[in-house]
Each structure stands twice: as structure tokens, then as C-alpha cells.
Design goal:
With 316 residues, the chain is mainly beta. It contains no helices and 24 strands. It folds into 2 domains: 152 residues, Sandwich (Jelly Rolls); 152 residues, Jelly Rolls. The chain is elongated.
Length: 316
């Protein structure tokens, strides 16, 4: 899950375009039902936009007549025919609100506080790559305040990976081909255990990218004892380098699914945990990624993730 804060008037780009089955929830800490006195009308909107700035879904909230208007348009084109429905008690003044959009095939399902209110047929065939929170320029208030949080839940693994497989803890899997620049490696677990293993050798679960010669190009080590994630690398026959360490507090939830996604850049690895960029690791060994390894200390009986996890390769 990815969480983005969107100030009024701003757009936030998504790491991955929205796909069938994905859900975006716009979460407002308060709701202001008093209409704005702007001469150009009271209009606050939540929007899904494409990479070309198409308004794929424009959800406009009109407090003056208690209505929600839905529309779409190209960047330089006119708005189409409006579709609308009434508030009908969906909002309470001064209370939080959640507006969710689910992608279902060629339709967007719009729910307010968990109640499905409208199904909108997509008019522009393009994936949503950004989220926008807007209002008329001369307004001084907006129905959802000065910012909203957007939670994005992606379907995992990606729908058409170039390669996918499952791997047990302790195993190494050789890829069909070396990772290319900008490709993603998805590590997906059905569950998470946050209780440290009492092993005398230390509690360490790691996800690893290896070269064809067995170099550890990236080691992502999760340490439950002190709530940290440690990043490192080493040659096949050499010692570990200097640890790079971040706190893992809030990254994982007990008993819940988890994803760790690594994007292979030209000189760095970007590491995302549950869809949020957590760290950028500068490459130390100039070799292509040709294998992945799922590992725990040899005398441990438990690990952070499931014993068997899914792995997928996606991207160009």
C-alpha cells in the first residue's frame, strides 16, 4: 500500500500505473459543507490523471447544490457530458470522509465511506499515473480542507510479469535473463511475523540480488530485534562492506501481507516497502543481477516473511 499526501492544487505521481483491481482511497481528516462564496462557483475535485495529463476521472464536489459531478477530458479538449449524483447524507460537517475509486475492467467504482455510490464507464483508454486534488482558483475553502491523503492498494504481483516464481527460504533462483535498467523485482509474502527469533546467531531475514558469479549485489536484511533494515553488498569470496541502516518501524504489520520491491537503476537500487520508496542503495559491484536469494540465519526457526514467497520480474 502506498500513502501520498496531496495539498490542494497539487498532483502526485504514482510509482505504478493503476491496474484492474487497484483501489485509491482519498482520505480527508475533516469535511467542510459550507459552500465557498467564490463568484465562479464552489467546485472541489479529486482526479485520476494519465501520463499525458488526461483527466481520466474528474470527481467534482459541489456544496451549493449538494451534488457530485463526474467527467473526463483530454488536456486541451472540452469536458464531456456530466454524470452526477446527490450527496444524500454521504458527508457530515466536521467529520472525516473517505472517497474510494476502484478500477474494475473498463469502469471506475466510486464509494463514499464504504458505500458504493456510482459506477463510471471509462471514456479515455489510458492508465492513471497521477492523483490530483483541485478547486476553483479563487476559492478560499475546499470541502476536504487544505490537503488529502491518498492510499493506493495495488494488485500484486503485476498482471503480466516477464518472469514469476516462488522461492523457499534458504533457496536461490536463477533468472531467465539479467535484469535490465528500470526493471522491478517484486518479493511478495502472504504474511509477516514481527516476533524475533531467539536464535543465538541473531535474527536476520534477507532478500538478495546476486550476480552470475555469486556476488551479493544487494542484501536487504530485516532485523526484528531492533526494528531495522540493513543494506549491504559483498563479492562472492570477500567480506561485507559498511552497513547502511534505516529504521523499519511502521513498515510491516503483524500477520499481514507484505511486499518489497527493488527497481534496478543504472547506478543504484531503489527499494520500496509496501509501495513506498524507503531507501536508495548505491551499487558497489558492477555486475548484472542474474539471481535472487531468500535467506535467514541458519539456526533460526522463523523468519519475517512466509516460508515460501512469490517473486516477479516486471518492467522493460
Amino acid at each position: 500500500m502506498t500513502t501520498l499526501t496531496i495539498p490542494i492544487g497539487d498532483t502526485r505521481s504514482l510509482l505504478f500505473p493503476l491496474r484492474d483491481g487497484d483501489v485509491v482511497s482519498f482520505i480527508a481528516s475533516t469535511t467542510l459543507l459550507q459552500p465557498d462564496s467564490s463568484p465562479n462557483g464552489d467546485n472541489t475535485s479529486l482526479n485520476l490523471v494519465s501520463g499525458d495529463d488526461d483527466y481520466l476521472l474528474h470527481i467534482s464536489f459541489r456544496r451549493a447544490d449538494q451534488s457530485v459531478r463526474l467527467n473526463s477530458r483530454r488536456p486541451d479538449g472540452p469536458w464531456g457530458a456530466e454524470e452526477s449524483f446527490k450527496f444524500d447524507g454521504s458527508f457530515t460537517d466536521g467529520r472525516p470522509s473517505v472517497v474510494s475509486v476502484s478500477v474494475r475492467g473498463s469502469k471506475y467504482l466510486i464509494a463514499i465511506d464504504g458505500r458504493l455510490r456510482y459506477t463510471y464507464a471509462q471514456r479515455i483508454n489510458a492508465p492513471a499515473k497521477g492523483l490530483r486534488y483541485g478547486r476553483n482558483g479563487d476559492m478560499t475553502t475546499a470541502i476536504f480542507g487544505n490537503s488529502v491523503n491518498a492510499q493506493v492498494v495495488h494488485t500484486l504481483p503485476p498482471p503480466n510479469p516477464s518472469q514469476s516464481f516462488s522461492i523457499n527460504v534458504g533457496d536461490t533462483y536463477t533468472l531467465n535473463s539479467a535484469l535490465t535498467n528500470d526493471q522491478f523485482v517484486y518479493f511478495i509474502s502472504t504474511t509477516t511475523s514481527l516476533t524475533p527469533d531467539p536464535s543465538p546467531g541473531g535474527d536476520t531475514t534477507s532478500l538478495n540480488l546476486l550476480s552470475g558469479d555469486g556476488d551479493w549485489l544487494l542484501c536487504i536484511s530485516i532485523r526484528r530485534v531492533n526494528n531495522t533494515v540493513v543494506f549491504n553488498a559483498r563479492n562472492a569470496t570477500g567480506g561485507w562492506g559498511v552497513d547502511e541502516i534505516i529504521s523499519s518501524k511502521g513498515f510491516f504489520q503483524e500477520g499481514q501481507p507484505a511486499s518489497v520491491i527493488v527497481q534496478n537503476r543504472s547506478s543504484v537500487f531503489d527499494i520500496y516497502i509496501d509501495g513506498i520508496l524507503r531507501y536508495t542503495f548505491k551499487k558497489r559491484i558492477n555486475q548484472p543481477v542474474r539471481a535472487v536469494r531468500y535467506h535467514r540465519n541458519g539456526n533460526m526457526n522463523t523468519q519475517v516473511f512466509a516460508y515460501n514467497i512469490n517473486v516477479a520480474i516486471d518492467g522493460q
